[in-house]
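Q: I'm building a small set of examples for a reading group on sequence design. Run inverse folding on the following structure and report the sequence directly after it, with nothing in between.
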């Protein structure tokens, strides 16, 4: 699987305070829980939709199953997460995807030792990107640019593409994350 060129942005271009968040290979939710009180998942959308232009080729499908959530601390949005997979993957390797509810998706992905993860990719998105637009719809006014990361999880031949957009409140930690 290849990502569009702009998802290969050099990490050195991201704000230093975001580096630990962008590069965490384990559960982002666990890292958030170590740094913020009362992490919760707010479901924004779960259903079928057309894949965005920069993700359709990742799954070789135009119509995908999608889950969009906000990871928040005390109602303060920290991360907008957008996860997609195919209908076939919902019947096989990622059959729990549609039944996650308000539980963090990472809790399922990192609990299963057979699920593998690709390398992480980074990108600075702006108001032209559909995920920036969706994040703004969910949380209100946003800076002109936001950093995001993307990776693919594999369960056998099935794939799940996860994109996490880091919101301004995440950088409120004065000295960066503790975990």
């Amino acid at each position: 699987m290849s990502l569009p060129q702009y998802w290969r942005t050099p990490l050195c271009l991201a704000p230093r305070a975001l580096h630990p968040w962008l590069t965490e290979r384990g559960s982002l939710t666990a890292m958030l829980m170590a740094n913020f009180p009362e992490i919760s998942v707010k479901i924004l959308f779960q259903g079928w939709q057309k894949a965005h232009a920069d993700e359709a080729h990742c799954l070789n499908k135009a119509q995908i199953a999608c889950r969009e959530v906000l990871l928040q601390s005390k109602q303060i949005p920290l991360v907008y997460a957008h996860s997609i997979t195919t209908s076939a993957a919902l019947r096989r390797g990622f059959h729990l995807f549609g039944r996650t509810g308000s539980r963090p998706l990472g809790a399922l992905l990192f609990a299963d030792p057979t699920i593998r993860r690709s390398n992480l990719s980074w990108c600075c998105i702006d108001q032209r990107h559909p995920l920036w637009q969706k994040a703004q719809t969910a949380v209100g006014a946003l800076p002109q640019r936001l950093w995001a990361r993307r990776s693919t999880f594999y369960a056998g031949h099935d794939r799940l593409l996860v994109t996490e957009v880091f919101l301004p409140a995440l950088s409120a930690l004065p000295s960066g994350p503790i975990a």
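The helical segments are 19-23, 28-35, 56-59, 87-91, 105-109, 130-139.
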